[in-house]
Structures are given as C-alpha cells and as structure tokens.
C-alpha cells in the first residue's frame, strides 16, 4: 500500500476530492508552515490572528478541493486561497478601524512616542518594509517569486495577471523597495 507521504500533490488532491481526509491532511502538513509564514507576512503575527487565517485558508481549501485543477501546482492554488483570505481579513480590519476612528474622540495632536517606536521597528525588517510600501499585488508577487520560488506563470495564476504584467509588477516592486531600503541602510 502506498503511503500518502509518497504521493505527489496532484494525486493527493485527487484523492482528497474523492473524500480521502488523510490525503488532504498530508497536503495540509506539507504546506501549513509556508502558508502561515505568508499570512504572517501579510497581516502580522500578533495574537495568533495569522495562525487562525492560515487555518481558515486550509479549511477553505478542503471545502473547495473539488475545484482544484491539476494543470497548476497545488501550492499555487493554495496560495491563491490564502491570498483571498488575507484580502478579506485586511478589508474587514480596515472597515473596523474606520468605524473605530469615526466613533473615537479626537486624539491629542502630538504623536504617540510608543507608536513611533513601533513604526520604526517595523521598518527594520525587509518584509515589513515590503508590506508597508508595496501594493498587495506587488507584495504577493515578490513573496511568491523570492520566498516560494514560483514561476511567472504561477504568480500570474495566483494574481490573475498575464506573465508580462507579473514582470512589470516585480520590476516596479523591486524599484520601490530599493528606494526605501536605501534610506534604511544610511
């Protein structure tokens, strides 16, 4: 009998789509850490929020495993789901912050020194700089290219963009990051 760990992602996904929970568990184990890292880079890691979002992405993948098309890498499909989970979370967070800001009383005019220190610390790390300076699409393209080593075609699939648009997005992202990183080094 062949063990699930010996099968490729596409075969495991086919088996999972047929109802094999063990096959999906193997896929989840293979990709959980990578998905958690990606989600943390997008939403931060405070309070386990990123871990919850990564888990949500895996649950969504399980629920929609029948839609997986093995013409593409399973990881590409999974990162697309994780990206959408992050986008939904960011949108919900923005809406909540807007409501809180509108309902809050006017803050003092001088900036909070603790908030300034936290902001400076965030700019100390490359991915934090990327997360704050790049658009969501640019960040995802850079992450998938340099962390996940995805091809331009795979990135295009995740972002629903043509390969040429992915190239342009990566070029602009690198140029934008270079300007910000130059100031951090000085």
In short:
The chain is 74% helix and 0% strand.
Strand content: under 5%
Helix content: over 70%
Note the run of SSEs as H and E.
HHHHHHHHH
User: How is the biggest beta sheet arranged?
Assistant: none
- State the total count of DSSP E strands: 0
The shape is: globular
| Measured distance between first and last alpha carbons | 60 Å
Structural class: mainly alpha
Number of helices: 9
Which residues sit in consecutive blocks of at least 5 with pLDDT less than 50? Answer: 102-110
Average pLDDT = 82
The value of Rg in angstroms is 19 Å
Verbal overview:
The relative contact order is 0.10. By secondary structure, this protein is an all-alpha fold. It is 74% helix and 0% strand. The chain contains nine helices and no strands. Helix 1 (9-17) crosses helix 2 (21-43), helix 2 (21-43) packs antiparallel against helix 3 and helix 4 (74-103) crosses helix 8.
